[in-house]
Amino acid sequence: MADLSGDVRALLGARNMAHVATLMPDGSPHVSPVWIAVEGDHLAIFSAQENRKVANLRRDGRVAVSVCDEHNPYRSVVVRGRVVEELEGDEAVAIMDRMSNRYIGSDFPMRSAIVSLIEPERVHLQDLPFRHPSDAGT
């Protein structure tokens, strides 16, 4: 298992959207924007039972996650790993609500979902020395 440094945990624990890549049955990639959290040493994402990403992860637990800092898109982390546990019920709802409160300030309106816990295998933090030019005066 790869270590999640303090900088990586900060980026994953902020209100940044993540993009999760899973594998379709034919091996092609499927990418979904998701909320993300760090639960212990694992990443957590959630989805409805009938969602394509749940089916993909149950068949092949390999996953890649990309997160960019919402305030500086040149600061990002890419994590490759594997789903090691799936949670449902009260435990899943508690994680969903923690994420939802961080992202939108209230509990998640749906009360049922699948939480996938991802064990990170490779972690790459990138902080490029670029900034968007000011839009002032354009």
From TrEMBL:
GO terms for molecular function: coenzyme F420 binding; oxidoreductase activity, acting on the CH-CH group of donors. The keyword Oxidoreductase applies. GO terms for cellular component: cytosol. Residues 7-122 form the Pyridoxamine 5'-phosphate oxidase N-terminal domain. Pfam families: PNPOx_N (PF01243). Keywords: Oxidoreductase. SUPFAM superfamilies: FMN-binding split barrel (SSF50475). The keyword rRNA processing does not apply. PANTHER family: HEME OXYGENASE HI_0854-RELATED. This is Pyridoxamine 5'-phosphate oxidase-related, FMN-binding protein. It comes from Rhodococcus aetherivorans.
